[in-house]
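Deliverable D2.4 — example input (structure tokens):
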């Protein structure tokens, strides 16, 4: 059973917080699972990298068994593959799957937002505004931090929803998307569009205009999918 008992966990560096779903297993295995997943999402571990249990155990200050169990969980979610004679590796995510991920997000996110518009607390709205402010202050070349703040913004809207199973699916797809995007840059035009779209969405949520907010969010997710798919195609 998956639990969403903690929004963020610390990576191995201890300097950033990352979004991770947590499994209801032994706490140590849960921690290793989350940290490996965070490192994959942030590009510390990239597609094709060998995942040697002894080295991972040293990296995360753990014994070997919790690492093995965490890798099995990650294999079940499609983040890790096991091959005979080569062991575990970070999965080679096919860029064609990006379309599928964005289509799933287009279905899930309006569902979450529709509920949020009617149930958002002032505390949560204030937090959204603070996250958006951080986004506006980022240097234009900080693509990784922009994606992290974008994820935090959306997570703040969705994390209160009662459908925990749907939230786990959303988290899984967002993490996969982060792994797919890696260190791709964000063009200035797209950067400005992201800020405008989030600003307008925040305005509509505060106005409790559910229909317009859902329409704006759907357009935001679609435009993001179109942008990244076209740019990945150019770099392939």
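Example output (designed residues):
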């Amino acid at each position: 059973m998956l639990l969403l008992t903690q929004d963020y966990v610390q990576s191995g560096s201890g300097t950033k917080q990352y979004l991770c779903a947590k499994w209801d297993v032994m706490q140590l295995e849960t921690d290793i699972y989350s940290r490996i997943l965070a490192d994959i999402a942030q590009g510390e571990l990239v597609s094709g990298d060998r995942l040697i249990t002894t080295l991972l155990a040293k990296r995360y200050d753990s014994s070997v068994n919790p690492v093995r169990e965490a890798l099995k969980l990650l294999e079940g979610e499609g983040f890790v593959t096991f091959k005979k004679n080569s062991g575990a590796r970070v999965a080679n995510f096919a860029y064609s799957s990006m379309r599928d991920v964005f289509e799933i997000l287009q279905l899930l996110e309006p569902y979450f937002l529709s509920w949020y518009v009617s149930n958002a607390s002032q505390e949560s709205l204030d937090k959204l505004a603070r996250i958006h402010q951080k986004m506006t202050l980022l240097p234009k070349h900080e693509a990784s931090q922009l994606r992290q703040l974008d994820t935090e913004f959306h997570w703040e809207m969705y994390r209160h929803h009662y459908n925990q199973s749907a939230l786990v699916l959303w988290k899984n797809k967002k993490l996969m998307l982060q792994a797919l995007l890696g260190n791709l840059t964000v063009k200035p035009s797209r950067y400005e569009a992201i800020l405008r779209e989030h600003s307008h969405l925040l305005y509509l949520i505060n106005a409790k205009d559910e229909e317009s907010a859902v329409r704006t969010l759907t357009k935001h997710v679609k435009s993001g999918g179109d942008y990244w798919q076209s740019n990945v195609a150019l770099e392939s």
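Confidence is low (pLDDT under 50) at residues 1-29.
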